[in-house]
Amino acid sequence: MSHASDLVTFENNWQNTPNKILSIHGTSDWIVPYENSILLAEKLPKNQLKFVTLNEAGHALLWTEFPAIKQELINEIN
After folding, report:
1. What is the Cα–Cα distance from 50 to 48, expressed in whole angstroms?
2. How far is residue 29's CA from residue 7's CA, in Å, rounded to a whole number?
3. Are 62 and 32 a contacting pair, CB within 8 Å?
């Protein structure tokens, strides 16, 4: 699993951040595997992370899925 070892390296710091995290990840990301976000979701407290899955979205989801991302950000701000 790509980047998994990097995530484990930072494991001790994940729960030290006071900020809430919004993670939006596409299941077809060919650069950063979707499984990395699943690992992150398993490590962070549920009330600290909102994990949004975009089915079939790839790594360029900011450009291909902008309306969905924009709506998630608006929902979080409100």
Report:
1. 7
2. 17
3. no
Q: Using an 8 Å Cβ cutoff, are 32 and 3 in contact?
A: yes
Residue type, 19: N
pTM assigned to the model? 0.76
Tens digit of each residue's pLDDT (9 = 90 or more) over 48-59: 899 999 999 999
In the Cβ-directed half-sphere of 41, how many Cα atoms lie within 13 Å?
A: 13
Tokens, residue 57: 């979205």
Q: Which positions ≥6 away from 32 have C-beta within 8 Å?
A: 2, 3, 25, 59
DSSP three-state, residue 22? strand
